[in-house]
Amino acid sequence: MADEPTTLVTQEMIDTRDVWSEKVYSRPISLNDIIKWGIAVYWPDDPPRIYWDEEYAKTTKYGGIIAPQDFNPFAWPVPRPPARELPKDPGVGERGMNGGQTDRYGVPMRPGDVISTSSALVDWNERVGSLGLTIFTYTEVRWENQNGELVKSRTSVGIRY
Amino acid sequence: MAENVYFEDVNVGDDIPSFTRQTDLMHWNRYAAVNDEFVYIHMDDEAGRAAANEPGAFGMGNLRWAYLLNMLREWVGDEVDVRELGVQFRAINQKNDVLTCVGTITEKIEENGEHLVRLDTNVINQDGNATCPGHAVVALPSRG
Predict the structure, then answer these.
(1) Any CB–CB contact under 8 A between B65 and chain A?
(2) Is position A105 within any domain?
(3) Has residue A89 been placed in a domain?
(4) I want to staple B66 with a disulfide (CB 3.0 to 4.6 A). Which of A6, A41, B39, B109 is the partner?
């Protein structure tokens, strides 16, 4: 039997820590995508008018329709990304779970906006817990609009054991 | 009216109005359609069981995230200014679960001319299990 690893920190993690990925840009956000998103997350009720009624939205402080804060302008990419292969018999460090996420919101997304995304592995810590050797990784994703304004900064916690 | 709540009207310990959905494939499939999230574990009972969830297919964490934001928007109104939302996904959303998003104000903060409230949030299922503990920070309008 192979020795159990003493760390799950890889050289790649060390090399890429705090290195921000090249920006990827969304297509311009369409009003129709905002409306469909609102319908999906409020189903079976109608979504709020701020997501679909331009005349009403003009009377709010936003001055127009905005997207829900959970709206994802990067859904449905082409070319399609390759399917992720999960290991059939995962070993130590290959098992994982979602440790949660925190978003900090800036300006809202609006129809016509082009959003950029960039991410970086910013931190990690390891400990031996009930699942054995476990590493918690912290990844930050930053979205900006075409004016360079922050839309969202997300910190995600990944757990591998 | 685009805003329902003012900073001066709320107190630490107040519960905000909840937001409830009973979720099944009608909800999950619609969400998959907008978020490009067609994953077998969210559509197919056999795949759900293969992923160690005995009841079968299960819901997306991202949809619970949306429901929490919906709760905050319905509480404050369309001009709600959610500054921060954080969660941990602790339990699975099973088919036909009745999910209730809840929030309790834990802190009122006045800083830099802003009026912020911090809340503990969660998504509780019909068995009373807390599936999604988290927090939110919301800027409220002031009467001042």
Answers:
(1) yes
(2) yes
(3) no
(4) A41
- Main-chain phi, psi angles of B29, to 5 degrees: -70, -40
What is the model's pTM? 0.94
List strands edge to edge, sheet with B98-111. A24-25, A116-129, A132-144, A150-160, A96-105, B81-87, B134-139, B114-124, B98-111, B19-22
Q: Please give the structure tokens belonging to residue A31.
A: 């009003």
Residue for token pair 């905002």 = A34
Residue A115, domain CATH: 3.10.129.10
A103 and A60 co-located in one domain? no
Do residues A161 and A135 touch, judged by C-beta distance below 8 A? yes
Q: Which CATH architecture has domain B7-139?
A: Roll (3.10)
**Domain coordinates in residue numbering, chain B:** 7-139
What is the dihedral angle through the alpha carbons of B103, B92, A105, B112, rounded to the nearest 10 degrees?
A: 30
The verdict on B88 touching A (C-beta cutoff 8 Å) is: yes
- pLDDT tens figures, A93-118: 888 888 899 999 999 999 999 999 99
Write out pLDDT tens, residues B80-100.
Answer: 999 999 999 999 999 999 999
- Of B85, B84, B71, B77, which Cα lies nearest the Cα of A50? B77
Cα separation, A89 vs A94, whole angstroms: 9
Tell me the pairing of strands A150-160 and B19-22.
Answer: unpaired
Tracing tokens 């018999």 back to the chain, one arrives at A89
**Residues A23 and A35 grouped into a single domain:** no
Average pLDDT score over residue span A65-70: 98
